[in-house]
Please model this.
Amino acid sequence: MNALLFRSSLLALGVSLLSTSAAEPARPLPPADFTLSPYTGYTRAHWLEITEQIIAGAMPWLDPVTGMPALPENSEHKQVELSDAITVKKEALERILTAVIFYTTATGRDTVPGYAGSLSAPFVRAIARGLDPSDPAYWGLAKDYDQVGSILALAAYLNPRLFWDPYTAEQKRHLLEYLQRQTVLKTYNNNHHYFHMVPASLLEREGYDAHRPHLTAMFQRLLGWYRGDGWFIDGSNGGFDHYNAWGFQLYNGVLYRFDEPWRQQFGEQIRATTGRFLSGLPWRQGRDGGPIPLGRSLCYRFADNAAIGWAVLNHLSPLPPGQARRLASGSLKYFWDHGCLNERGLLSIGYHGENAVVGEFYSSAGSPYWATQAFACLLIPAADPFWTDREEPIPADGAGGEQLVPGAQSFVRVSALDGEARLYPVGQPFTHP
Model:
């Protein structure tokens, strides 16, 4: 067996923190409810409060005129090499928007405590101006490998009242033309294919050619990377890691929900692969809620929860609702307790607190906001058993256990003694530098 070992504790990263501890949150979380949630104490109210604080921390960094973000970069982290300034700003805009979409859809509110003003208005303004060729704030034509678009379409699907209806007819045309161009741009040969596929239904609904045969070939390519046990290899990156959850499982869930033709064509395959992945998820988290840190982009922290959220929404989860919430709340609590917000109230590049060593060459200040994909869980209705059932234990809460995962060429052991999950990669190919 390979001597490499990945554990659910921070020691698995093999680096010191090198971080400045985040300040205490501006507001305390609601009181823990250990009757409903005996393992985490978290309820839906905790999820809402954390989402509110993350949004309130990011919104002041949006320019009041253009709506575009200007997040402060970590001076210790090497700046993005492969992107120009507008690309970095677009990524930050879309990723912060993710939290706002889920929050406004779940609550029906367009405001958040700690921030004075509309949540949606800066984003609508930024998109309307950025896509207007006659506007000084125009983004320019999207270039090959541009990744922004899927969240803009998701906003229109989930909350058209705030993120579609306010646009004028001309502004809608600009947005649709931008999304249509995205369907045929070159992209990286990995999970990035999904970014170009999500707008297909919106385009066709509005009478635009989505180049569906081309995108369907992309989908077939993505699904062809399945290796078993719920695990996909991430294309040219050649490995198995958290992108399986916050890339493949996330977007398969989104497309399953919003694209009827692809649900008819690929729905059974998505149902099977999603169910298999979630069945193994309880073995990959420690008693303290910490997931096993494996692979790249670890500054996305609790984004794994997106896989749980979309699976529950789509009725594809095989887990008892109380156990699904125990996993999701455990992960959110783990990262919240370890300082995912820095002293400015922003999500930082890091794992525990701010730590530039965890950053990738493609990371920038807005990158960590991919973590807010986790808040898809808020789309689950408040009366759903996911929120109302009592938390159920995972292996780390009790006797532990072992799981062989041939599809991901790994073996997982959960210790009953210390509640830690340990992953042993047996023969994983991994070519990402």
Q: What stands out?
A: The chain is about 35% helix and 5% strand. Confidence is low (pLDDT under 50) at residues 10-25.
